[in-house]
Protein: Endonuclease/exonuclease/phosphatase family protein
Amino acid sequence: MNAKVLAVALGVLAAAGGNASATETSLTMMAFNIWGGGGNAGKPVDETVAAIKAAGADIVAISETRLEGDPCTADVCAPRGESVAPKIAAALGFHYYDQTAANPAIWANAVISRYPIVKPTADDLGVAIDVMGRSVYVFCVNLDDAPYQPYQLLNIEYGAAPFLKTADEAIKSAESTRGKAFNALIADADAATNADAVFIAGDFNEPSHRDWTPGTVKAGFQPLAVAWPGTSKLEKAGFVDLFRAAYPDEVAKPGITWTPTTEASDPKDHHDRIDFIFARAKALKVHSAGVVGEKAPEADIVVSPWPSDHRAVVAKVSF
Structure:
């Protein structure tokens, strides 16, 4: 559906939520690739804690709780060292769960929560959380970054991946790279039959079909329109992209999360929105959303010094 249809659909969700105020639950969710808690740049973990505090997050889906391996290339980059999730949780007074299973959708992930974490899911992709008596599932992922189709389309070398020319080639490559992971996430979400709300969040390493549009091509943001398969699947499964729900105009509000470490004009990189929070719940209302990062106008919530090579995304919802 286009942006206008999405806005109408969200209006219906908001109206439905207005009738459920007696049992309404509010949450502020955050997705944050913390780059080893800043450790890959020699930064202290308290900078990451400061960013989470500034966002006012209740639950954080964290990627890269451990340092990058040596070597760290497009083809080989295993995490090393200890997870910083316990330190972050202790500083916040939160609960945490480190995701440690061998799963291609996980790369040093963790969930940190103000509310008690009840149990992990069978494949370790997520956790069940007791939010004031309501069952909330949070699936936290860091999907494969290679091949990275935006680079392939822009003739930017990244590992041994071949360059691509068409949207169809990019979709096929993205599906081959991350399709099984998205399918597993949706299957896990569908299996959580007792859930009052389900969130899928993290570093997708794949853009959104709502950002690679004719409008962003005309604006010079993207090289061509691409119906990226991962976000398309999530929407078809009933999930809402919380940032794009709050800001349906992808040209006026691109919401770039990758990357604060290079200039937008750098020919060896491409800035994009690849960090997401998707949600599915009855009477879902999206109250606000934004980017957390190092400076305005790229970030809605500015935190300096900034510890990561990604900006974070935050959203306040009720259901």
Q: What stands out?
A: Helices lie at 3-17, 46-55, 85-92, 149-153, 167-191, 214-218, 229-236, 242-246. Residues 1-21 have pLDDT under 50 and may be disordered.
